Amino acid sequence: MIIMGHDEIKFKLSPNLWFFISHLSQKENIRLVFRRDQTYKHLVESLGIPHTEVALIKVNSTPSNLSVISSPGDEVEIYSHFDQEDCERQHITNPKFIVDLHLGKLAIQLRLLGFDVNYGLYTEDADLARCSAEEGRILLTRDRRLLMRSIVKSGYCVRSLNPWDQVLEVVNRYRLRTDFDPFGRCIKCNSPLRTVSKESILDRLEPLTIQYFNEFQECTSCKQIYWKGSHFRAICEGFSSMGEVLKP
Ligand SMILES: [Zn+2]
């Protein structure tokens, strides 16, 4: 029998959060020395886990929240959004994202799927966090410190370095499979696309494009023209490689 010290708090972490504690040899049961006036948010983030990754916290078997001040001797269970059996992952209607500068391919691919993605407007962490909070955008980044800012209410720490795997992570995390609207949005400026007749844009098309394609869309803002050419085939191949089928 292990008797905890009076100045300790014991954490039991879901394996879905072990990604964040690769530096610790002990993963499942972690003991932290208690200091007064620290919230669970502070303690969880001292382990390297951003508060945005925590779906549910139980203190001494009772559901609690991260803003509660910890008490010596507490036994704390921390669950991830990926723990379906313990936490319902909420499906968000019309999700909007803000993606940090290091994840450009992820941003483009989410736009290709039709999602509203703010990308490239801000370079400073404070601006990314503020935009996320003010516009209700989910902040996607690999920067844990950025997600630990209290102002960020909704965000996800992207695990993989592979852009296709990153898309799959985000799709799974936010249950986006029923929200795809391929080519509904301009990948350059994020504005919605509209269908245009071939005749109305003939002077802007190359001869081979005129010969082989009949359906076109135009960005409502920057006027970029889109058609189901090589770009479309590339994204179809990308999605079939991760088990998704995108119908032309
Ligand atoms: Zn555009």
Protein architecture, described:
This protein is an alpha/beta fold. It is 25% helix and 21% strand. The protein is built from seven helices and twelve strands. It has helices at 40-46, 104-112, 125-135, 144-147, 163-174, 207-212, 230-241, and strands spanning 8-13, 29-33, 54-59, 62-64, 75-80, 96-99, 116-119, 138-141, 155-157, 193-196, 216-219, 225-226. The strands form three sheets. It has a five-stranded mixed beta sheet with strand order 2-1-5-3-4, with no helix packed on it. A four-stranded parallel beta sheet has the order 7-6-8-9, with helices on both faces. The chain has a three-stranded antiparallel beta sheet with strand order 10-11-12, with no helix packed on it. A hairpin with a 2-residue loop joins strand 3 (54-59) and strand 4 (62-64). Helix 2 (104-112) crosses helix 5 (163-174). The termini are far apart. Mean pLDDT is 88; it is low at 1-5. Bound molecules: zinc ion (ZN).
Features:
4-stranded parallel β-sheet, 248 residues, binds zinc ion, 5-stranded mixed β-sheet
